Structure formats: C-alpha cells, structure tokens
Amino acid sequence: AQAQKPANPRKPPANIIRVDPILYLRGDIPVFYERRLGRLISAEVGLGITVKDFWRDYGEQTTQGMGRKINTPYRLMVDYYPGFSVRVGVKRFVDADVNIKNAAALNGVYVGAYLFYRQHKWRELIDTDCSQQYFDEHQNAAGIQFMAGIQQTSNILIGYNFYGGLGMRYIIESKYHSDSVYDCPKPTHNHYWLPSLLFGLQLGFGW
Q1: CB-based contacts of 24, cutoff 8 Å, min separation 6
Q2: Total-model pTM
Q3: Between vectors from CA 196 to CA 120 and to CA 75, what angle results, nearest 5°?
Q4: What does each C-alpha distance from 90 to 54, 82, 190 come to in angstroms?
Q5: What is the mean pLDDT of each run of 10 residues along the chain (207 residues)?
Q6: Is 38 helix (H, G, I), strand (E, B) or coil?
Q7: Could you give the CA distance from residue 98 to residue 104 in angstroms, rounded to a whole number?
C-alpha cells in the first residue's frame, strides 16, 4: 500500500494587527502592527489617537470631591481634543509553539521592551470670583516599558496577546490652577517621573 503523505503543517503568521480595549480607559485608541523578524524575534509599532482620559478624569474628580475645601474653584466643564500616541518595541520569544513545525515568533511566551509617547489635550472651564473662563491645558507622557506575556494565533488566524509588566514614564503637563475662588487661575508647568503597572489583552488577526 502506498504510504500517505503527511499533511502540510500550518504556516505560522508573519504579520499581526491588533487592538487593545483596556487602553481605551486611558483615552488611548491605538492600532498595533507586529512583524516577525526571525524565528524568535518580532518588532511592533502602535499608532493611535487620544481622546478623553477616563481614568485620569475620574481620579481628579474623586480627589476634588473628597478633598475640596470651601472657597476653592470648580472645574465646570472639560472639552477634550484629539491627540496622538506612538509605541515601538521588540519582543524575544522564549517558548515557541511546539505544535507548529518550524514555529516562528508571534506564538508563545515572550519578553519585550517598548518606548512610547502619548499626548492629551483639553480645554477646561474654571469658575472663580475672578472669572469664569476657558483655559487650554495638556499633558504629554514618554517612557519605557518592560513586559512579558503570551500570545497565540488560531487556525483561522484570530489571535490574542495577554501581557503584564512595569515601566517608567516622564510626564510634562501645563495646567491652570487657583488655590482660592477669589484668585485668578495662573498657569503651572510640571514635569515628573511616575512608575507604571501594565496589563492588558490585545485581540487581532494574523496573516
């Protein structure tokens, strides 16, 4: 009897497009493109637009509501303007998919390093006895992130990427501030470092 030829192994994807819904809470809506560079190495770039940062806005409103003193100014309204975000990074896979012959990067456990930049812009209406006026404000953040995760692409090329990690970001912000309802708001410019705790679930497809 003639021996049957083995079935052709599934070819692993060389490209993946993903979205990251958890980042939407930070008002960041990026699309990620990942490209295999070698059997265990890939590169990723993300470009997005930024809108209202729900997490930051919730924190500021909670702080203002809990710690607000008598005769301090109110934030009456905040209008957000589109900004942008950029991420670039490299992944090193440490556990390639053993079920795929000649398995390449884009499947398995990995560690990675990323650089990122994110810009948020908004206009704030501040109410004091001095004035009720709009002020343009912004916050820019840049930093480095170190992550580990696991990602997989199915037979129908639908995939996921679950990740976590730590990072540091340098923040530059320009705001208007008034300590008292009797004072006119004055511009303040701050810059500082903050640590980041990262986690998320990306979804997408490969080819």
Answers
A1: none
A2: 0.82
A3: 40
A4: 29, 27, 31
A5: 53 87 93 92 97 76 49 70 97 68 71 97 82 87 97 82 97 85 82 95 93
A6: coil
A7: 10
